[in-house]
UniProtKB/TrEMBL annotation:
Protein's name according to its UniProt entry: inositol-phosphate phosphatase
Cofactors (names): Mg(2+)
PANTHER family documented for this protein: INOSITOL MONOPHOSPHATASE (PTHR20854), INOSITOL-1-MONOPHOSPHATASE-RELATED (PTHR20854:SF4)
UniProt GO MF annotations: inositol monophosphate 1-phosphatase activity; metal ion binding
Organism classification: Bacteria, Bacillati, Bacillota, Bacilli, Bacillales
Enzyme class: hydrolase
Binding-site positions, Mg(2+) 2: I90
Domain of life: Bacteria
Keywords: Hydrolase, Magnesium, Metal-binding
Metal-binding among keywords: yes
SUPFAM superfamilies tied to this protein: Carbohydrate phosphatase
Entry EC number(s): 3.1.3.25
Length: 264
């Protein structure tokens, strides 16, 4: 592994574990909960505090790197020039508030648009998924196996019920045949955890209609390291600076669902 990326990887893992400790410690304190775009779009003092922590640590250690963070404490990133950290301090804030589990810290580090480092830290389970491009993906110290091709009939597919009822975004009926075809469906409420589960082979497909780059930047690096695919619903490459529908899966499930159910 290139020495430079190895050093950044160690720095990132230390910072992420420290962020995890701060989050666990916050369970003893009263959360300040606010809403953003609507009454169900929650943000807490911890989402903000953790993002600020990363922005400060990264700007001290790597002043020429830029940060794109959900809560807006980083830079105004409009392109992927240079090295960009794409950070979701707490992915699954609704779970964090209501369940104190099923949320994750998610980080992708991209260099000239290429995903170099990917991290998803399921704090409560103490599972740190991490990958350096070209060096495989791991959960804690355990190397993740290359993804196996799973027939659709045996696939566990993650899809939020929101997309199966009439909604403003899309013709919901087009997803119903997928639900009939697969072995089972799940929804965990944290895009990062769903992507980490794809990388770990616990899920075979994940489809959602609206994610932001910080939701998928880390997961994309992890999944690609084990031979999986992450695209939009047409099979096209995702932009790292725009919101997008996202479809991730092992190679066989991705190809079959794309060709037989998604492509018009
Ligand atoms: C949300 C979660 C959720 C997904 C939403 C995201 P947040 O992220 O990943 O699973 O369905 O689209 O916005 O706001 O909790 O970081
Ligand atoms: Ca949010
Ligand atoms: Ca998120
Ligand atoms: Ca978030």
């Amino acid at each position: 592994m290139d020495k430079k990326w190895h050093e950044i990887d160690l720095f990132a893992k230390n910072a992420i574990r420290e962020a995890g400790r701060k989050i666990i410690d916050s369970f003893d304190e009263v959360l300040n909960i606010q809403t953003k775009s609507n009454v169900n779009d929650l943000v807490t003092n911890m989402d903000k505090q953790i993002e600020k922590f990363f922005v400060e640590e990264i700007s001290k250690a790597y002043p020429d790197h830029r940060v794109l963070g959900e809560e807006g404490y980083g830079d105004r990133v409009k392109d992927m020039d240079g090295t960009v950290w794409i950070i979701d301090p707490i992915d699954g804030t609704m779970n964090f508030v209501h369940q104190q589990r099923n949320f994750a810290v998610s980080i992708g580090v991209y260099h000239e648009g290429i995903g170099m480092l990917g991290y998803i830290y399921d704090v409560v389970s103490d599972e740190l998924y991490h990958a350096v491009k070209g060096n495989g993906a791991y959960v804690n110290d355990e190397k993740l196996s290359p993804l196996e091709d799973v027939p659709l009939e045996e696939a566990i597919f993650s899809l939020n019920a929101t997309w199966l009822v009439p909604n403003r975004k899309v013709d919901h009926e087009r997803f119903i045949p997928i639900v009939h075809k697969v072995r089972g469906t799940r929804s965990y409420g944290s895009a990062a955890i769903e992507l980490a589960y794809i990388a770990a082979g616990r899920l075979d497909g994940y489809l959602t209609l609206r994610l932001s780059p910080w939701d998928f930047a880390g997961g994309k690096v992890l999944i690609e390291e084990v031979g999986g695919i992450v695209t939009d619903l047409n099979g096209d490459e995702l932009s790292m600076v725009d919101n997008s529908p996202v479809f991730a899966g092992n190679r066989a499930v991705h190809e079959k669902v794309l060709n037989e159910y998604l492509k018009k």
